[in-house]
Structure formats: C-alpha cells, structure tokens
Amino acid sequence: MSATVRQFDHAPFQRTATARVCAVSEGAVAVDSTVFYPCGGGQPGDTGTMQTDSGRMLNVTDTVKGEHGLIWHRIDGPCPRVGEEVTLDIDWERRYRLMQMHTALHLLSVAVPYPVTGGQMTPDKGRLDFDVAGEALDKAAITAQINAWRADDLPVSTEWIDRAELEANPQLVKTVGAMPPSDSGTVRLVRIGEIDRQPCGGTHVASTGEIAPLEVKSIKNRGAHNRRITLVWQEATGGVS
User: Where is the Alanyl-transfer RNA synthetases family profile domain (predicted)?
Assistant: First the structure.
C-alpha cells in the first residue's frame, strides 16, 4: 500500500480535495492523498469534513500519522468503503490560525537564540521551551521583535535538501535531541526571509505580514535550564499592535 500523498507540504493554502479511500479501521479512514495535516511537530492534526460520493457528510475530528506513511482521518460515523471517492474539506479558520502560530513560533526561535527543548501550539496560543541557563529574558523586548518582523512582511518559503546536506549543517536543527524526519532521503526546510532557515514539516503562512499581532504572555522556569515562553494573540488580551 502506497503512502498518502501529503498535499499540504507544497500547497498549505489548499482547503479542499478529492481522494480515494485506501484503508479503513475502527473510526478512521486513510486516503491516497490529503490536504489534512496530521498531528506532529507540536502542531495538532487538522479537523473538518469528509463527504462520501453518496453525499454522506462525516466530521473529521483529528488527523494522525500511521504506519507505511499512511495518514488517518478520524471520523464520527460509519466509514466509507475502500475504493470510494471522498471530498475532504478542512476547518480553514482553525488551520489558518495554526499556520499563523506555527510561523510565529519560528520567529520566537530566532528572537530567543537558544536550543529548543520542546514546543506545542493550539489555534489560540503556542509555546517553546528553551535551554537557557542563568540569563534573564525580557517579555516586552521579545514581543517587540516578533511584531517588528511581522511588520517587515518577510516571505516564508519551503525548500528540500538532501539528508547529507543537513548532516553537514547541524546548526540548522534547533530542537535538542530530535533530528527531523526525511522523505526518501530529503528534508523539508522552511525559510523566513534572511533571518531563519530550519527543518520543519508543518504548515505556514506565505509571509510574516499574515500573522496577527502577538505578545509574550509568560516566561516560566521549567527546571534549572528550561524556560517556557508562551505566545498569545493580542486580541485575546486586549493589546494593540
């Protein structure tokens, strides 16, 4: 069985697509090609709908990775048949917020130039953990820097490099103890203007100007060296850009 084609790798703004069911399990459907991003790298899996060729509408409650490169869509009703054509439609408002936040976390990793030990995001907030020893971090300064890069409207693009090239440039990997997955010996990089270039499999906006105004909500100690920085939308706190 072939791996699911990951349309979101090259077309993160594509919201709908037709696909063919290639496997079913209890409450989950794998298709030959999808626009739904599966949970990974701190980014939640997409939600939305799956419509069968008979017109039955199913809610997709989560998207996850499976064995052999399959991507599984968890649904809340009876599964369609293997071989049946379905129409996939992402919850776009939720996905776009995640794309904005994921890109913002890349900016955070540049504003705070320390090794990243973990991260997670939702449509409402995102956080990164940094290996920082004994240095004070300034919430206001980090907020100002990220929003300055937003105002610069820097282009966000992707490229692919050989695994060997990544191994020859280990400084590209910011996450401690976690080498990015490779697809047939290649690794996907996300570039933001001239300020950042790092491996990432997630979905991102096309330019930093698309990111809504943000602020650093908190910086917390999570161990002797670990600092957890949380970003939120300014609209949620009453702030202004």
Answer: 1-232
- Rounded to the nearest 5 degrees, what angle is found at the Cα of 40, between the Cα atoms of 9 and 117? 120
Sign of CA dihedral 228, 234, 239, 241: positive
How many CA atoms lie within 13 Å of 32's alpha carbon, on the beta-carbon side?
11
Read off the tokens for 141.
């300064």
Contact 101, 121 (CB under 8 A): yes
Per-residue pLDDT tens for 153-192? 999 999 999 988 988 998 899 888 766 766 668 899 999 9
Q: CA 29 to CA 41: how far, in whole Å? A: 22
The SS3 of residue 33 is strand
Tokens found for residue 164: 């060997």
pLDDT in tens, 183-221: 668 899 999 999 999 999 999 999 999 999 999 999 998
Distance CA 92, CA 59 (A): 14
Assess contact for 66 and 59: CB atoms under 8 A: no
Q: Write down all domains in the chain, each with its CATH number in brackets.
A: 5-90 (2.40.30.130), 95-237 (3.30.980.10)
Q: Please choose, from the candidates 160, 229, 230, 170, the residue with its C-alpha nearest in 3D space to the C-alpha of residue 191.
A: 160
- The C-alpha atoms of residue 73 and residue 76 are separated, in whole angstroms, by 10
Whether residue 22 has pLDDT greater than 80: yes
Pick from 30, 39, 33, 42: nearest CA to 10: 33
